[in-house]
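Step 1: inspect the first sequence and its tokens.
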Amino acid sequence: MLLRQLEYLVALARERHFARAAAACYVSQPSLSAAIRKLEHELDVPIVRRGRRFEGLTPEGERVLAWAHRILAERDALSQELSAMRGGLTGTLRIGAIPTALTAASLLTTPFCERHPQARVSLDSLSSAEITHRLAEFELDVALTYLDDDTLHHVRKIPLYEERYVLLTREPTGPTAGWAQVAALPLCLLSPRMRNRRIIDEYFAADGAKAAPAVESDTVAGLYAHLAAGRWSSVISHAWLHVFGVPEGMRVVPLEGPAHGPRVGLVVADHEPQSVLAAALLEVARETRVRDALDDLLNTYLGK
């Protein structure tokens, strides 16, 4: 049994298509199919349900896949440890982040890359469900997500900051604004399927109001693109100011009543082997005061 055969199996399970899996592995489809058939022969179990197209894995195949993830993770951990012993980390740190936390990622990845110049970073925008799955399947080293997510199991959590919500607007307001007052403004907000939006909808409701945004976006970048047009206001997380700042002509207004959201932090799977790259990022996180940096930035925009 070769590690390459296990890599092919992992790719097939991920892509759920022989041709796409072969392309991801930079081999021909016949070569990938032959390698998996050889793996089945060596283990003496059927691994793939075959029909006119890929139909999934057999129960035995699911068990082999779980071991394949673990074996390949062990291989990667060994390689990382040896590179560290030679004087510097190499390899790729795989980070998954929920969309609303992506703007804070550079506060960690930049010092990480400065400390480990031979390492690389791969940062993917993922849903909470995707993060949970990929952590369990050894496909991520670490995730940046909400720490109170009920789907996270068998993980270690490292808090970074708590979301703070503020109004971004050109409209005349007092020094602060209530949630009902904000609901009456022409708004651009994230879509309801985003956790951030569901939280602020609860705050609107608690103040006896309901937001009816003219524009909804499923990305922070899309939201800011509309704010730059000068027509809409929005409720934002202070972490977004780190990347997008305040569009020209707009100002940041504190919100009255509840204006704090859930904690955001790093999450690593609590299983062996532990990623050396993830451990290195956690060390950077402990030394980098992300919360203070974001709070200082917000206070600058508030004139404090």
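Step 2: inspect the second sequence and its tokens, then contrast the two.
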Amino acid sequence: MPNDPPRSHLAAMKGDGFYNRHSSMQATGISALLSLWETACRTIAAGEGPFTIVDYGSSQGRNSMTPMRVAIKALRLRSGPSVPIEVVHTDLPTNDFSALFEALSSSPDSYMNEASDVFPSAIGRSYFEPLFPRQRVDLGWSTWSLQWMSTGMIEAPDHILAGMSATPEVISAVKRQQAKDWERFLVLRSREMRPGGKLVAGFTARTADITGWEWLLGELWSALSDMRTDGWLSEREQTRITIPIGIRTLEEIRKPFLKGENFADLELEHLDLVRLADPCWEQFERNGDVLAFAKRHTAMMQAWCEPTIASLIEPSRNPAAFVTELFNRFERRLVEGPRPHEPYMAAVVLSKRA
């Protein structure tokens, strides 16, 4: 197994159900994966149950409801209407698991509605660590998570996102770390999966030249730079505020599998790059409300990156006031120059050799 990742605190998504309420962009990407997921659920070669489905990086659960419902339906079509199914949601210990269980019990979209012999649970632990005994998992699902690095120790002086830096040393460090993280994730998941099991993942990716995040994250970096100019923080503090995300190309995702027919007994069944439409832009084109457009995008950004940014601010700076000011400035910049946000997502299907 690759060496243990450096220990560094990474923040979960914004709590109190905020991420659940403001993740429509992520839901768009999940919709693009559902046909691959349904096929994987129908074609696993892992016996007739009981089945264990794992939702790696579940956050607060809203965007897990449809894929888990699809999986339950597919498994029961092949193995009978009463086959027991265990659904395990995993995320960082700081994740808002209470929002997840609230969604499971009360959301009209919950996969538990009218379900029997379905057993949900959660694990508060990073997926860069072992999560299950060997050969426990039949199906794995992971979306909008694997772009995060296992460490927040890489700092970029020229961008708020580590993977969008133009500094050669930063680019090299990000590529090395993400290569290690990807191989570690694959080794751990392979150990946990039963032979014939499958895992479907969708996460932020890029072409050789474009990430799709240039506009939104460029505006966030500009808002942060304006705050430094206005005395809210020093240049050193600005450099420290680096979100630990890298954005892989398909070639980097494929690389472990080029060494042989498989990697760690996993085969790469499918790999594609999908460009997603912007649900906020579609609404803006219908109603022309630029402030509503800016507020929706601001909330979606806050949902996934505000806690990480807050954790990187010196306590003496009053992190709550700092992030409020940052995202107010960010929102104003979006009002001044709205445009569609169309990020790329890698669609990945892995199978464990039977």
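Step 3: confirm your contrast with the notes below.
Strands lie at 51-56, 85-91, 118-124, 137-143, 193-206, 248-249, 266-275, 344-352. Confidence is low (pLDDT under 50) at residues 3-9.
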